[in-house]
Amino acid sequence: MNRTTMGFIYTGMAYLMVGVGLGLYISIDSSARILVPVHAHVNLVGFVMFTIFGISYHILPRFRGRPLYSEGMAWLQFWAANVSLAGFLVFTATKLYWGVGSDLRAVFAALLALSFVLFVYNMGRTMIQVPPQQH
Ligand code: HEM
Ligand code: HEM
């Protein structure tokens, strides 16, 4: 497994633990219910999407029988997704609690969306790549 797959699997597991912890906290203390959007994205983006990204990078090129279009782009996507998700979560929390940070949240949201686009582009180019000429 390459570093992008390992990175997404490990960070996905870490986010699952954070998300489950936050879910338990919300269950116990109902005043923490304001953090439900944070809980939702920690779990759905941090665990579900990151795990899908990690497994996809490993398995889809193999299903297709071709190397991934760009390993560098995959590694860039890993970092863009991690930095932007962390920023998005922090500024979602500050927005919900204190009503500040909306603009910064929007910047991180855009970067997160861009990281998703990088995944789709890289995977798309992998799947539709023209096979090398047979000699
Ligand atoms: C032990 C694990 C978990 C606990 C204790 C937990 C707990 C909670 C609680 C208390 C809420 C707020 C419900 C409410 O008052 O409206 C909630 C909402 C939510 N949780 Fe979890 N959760 C857990 C795991 C997960 C996982 C693994 C996911 C996704 C893969 C997830 C996705 C969501 C979503 C999307 C919402 C928002 C639902 C909505 O839009 O109303 N949760 N969770
Ligand atoms: C670029 C990626 C994403 C961005 C920027 C984004 C942004 C947002 C925002 C701003 C909200 C409203 C939260 C609020 O009330 O403040 C929201 C809600 C929600 N999003 Fe996302 N999202 C993204 C990806 C996803 C993905 C991939 C999923 C599911 C797999 C998801 C599931 C949800 C759910 C379930 C809610 C409702 C949460 C609740 O009940 O409070 N989002 N999202």
Bound ions, cofactors and other small molecules, one mention each: protoporphyrin IX containing FE
Return the string of H and E elements: HHHH
Mean pLDDT: 95
Global Rg: 17 Å
Proportion in helices: over 70%
Unreliable stretches (pLDDT < 50, length at least 5) are none
Count of all domains? 1
Structural class: mainly alpha
Number of strands: 0
Largest sheet: none
Our measurement of the CA-to-CA distance between the termini, rounded to an integer number of angstroms, reads 31 Å
How many helical stretches? 4
Overall 3D form: elongated
Estimate the strand proportion.
under 5%
Structure commentary:
- With 135 residues, the chain is an all-alpha fold.
- It has one domain (3-127).
- Helix content is 81%, strand content 0%.
- The protein contains 4 helices and no strands.
- The protein has helices at residues 3-28, 36-64, 71-98, 102-128.
- Helix 3 (71-98) runs antiparallel to helix 4.
- It is elongated.
- The structure holds protoporphyrin IX containing FE (2 copies).
- One protoporphyrin IX containing FE binds next to helix 2 and helix 4.
- Residues 36-37, 40-41, 44-45, 48-49, 92, 109, 112-113, 116 line the site of one protoporphyrin IX containing FE.
In short:
This protein is mainly α and 135 residues long.
